[in-house]
Fold this sequence. Notes:
- By secondary structure, the chain is mainly alpha-helical.
- Helix content is 55%, strand content 7%.
- It is built from 13 helices and five strands.
- The strands form two sheets. Strands 1-2-3 form a three-stranded parallel sheet. It has a two-stranded parallel ribbon with strand order 4-5.
- Helix 9 packs antiparallel against helix 12, helix 10 (235-248) crosses helix 11 (252-258) and helix 10 (235-248) crosses helix 12 (264-290).
- The chain is globular and about 70 Å long.
- The two termini are 30 Å apart.
Amino acid sequence: MKIFSGIQPSGELHIGNYLAVITQWLDLQEKNDCIFCVVDWHAITVPYNSSILQQKIKEVAAIYLASGIDPEKSTIFTQSAVKEHVELAWLLNTITPVGDLQRMTQFKEKSAKHAKNICAGLLNYPVLMAADILLYQTEVVPVGQDQKQHVELAREIARRFNARFGETFILPKVQIMKIGAKIMSLTEPTKKMSKSDPDQSRISLFDTPEQIKKKIASSTTDSGHEIKYNPEEKPGISNLLTIYSLLMEKTIKDAEKDFANASYQTFKQRLSELLVEKLTPFREKKTELAQSPERIEKILKAGAEKAGIQAQATMAKVRQAMGL
Ligand code: AQP
């Protein structure tokens, strides 16, 4: 199967990105034709620091590699290195109703967050994402819960294009985790953990053991003392239990049993130790990769060449279908 997914170089990647998305990629890359992109054109739809964008792109690529994404098996590249993404996005803009874009949850949330800076690019973000997906005739798009709506819109755009101009695109399907598709903020557990929110609200993949311990110890929990999964009544504990069960590869029920008579404090201590143990290889690999930036550049360049060939083939079909 053809798989496409990406992450924006827009801040510090966190365990939500890893547990909900990158772990899916690791499974999928074994038996599928996978493309994993660093989606830099998406990251510039909200205010950003241009002087560190290149560094952030390399950091995200380093995380892909540190997580176990294998450039021999999967294609890894930077979105802006394959210009066909913007060409297709423009063409798809011409068949996408503005109303569809205005009702997107992410557009509403991000325009509220950046009220003084709502650019047309933010509204058109899902069209660029549709182009990313459709350019590679993608069948499955593994993402977190918050991106499900955008993948469904990409499918609808493909369906509309095919109906108007003839069969051109495969209709992509979304794939999300049954548990953990939305990891919540540590400080406000009814909101999703986000790269661009304050540091104490998330566990970043490169956090030190001290930072991890401090963040988990001060994470918001709920009244009561039972370690039980109940997102409505106990959002904080339920979120921590979800993280624990995914890291331990256990069911939520088994995770609850591990802490049947334990206090919140004991549970938090155990979770901190587990996170330290699981995240240490990320920091080590990052240090190792930082010493050979040319390796990442080489992988991204080779990936862009490979992706470019596929993108050009799709664009030839699209231009012909549209009479261009
Ligand atoms: N909290 C989360 N839980 C589960 N999955 C998540 N994803 C993001 N946050 C969570 C998934 O990670 C992938 C990459 O996300 P993105 O770079 O496209 O950015 P985003 O969805 O806008 O997430 P962020 O972290 O909140 O970034 P900023 O703050 O830059 O907007 C996606 O598949 C996403 O679903």
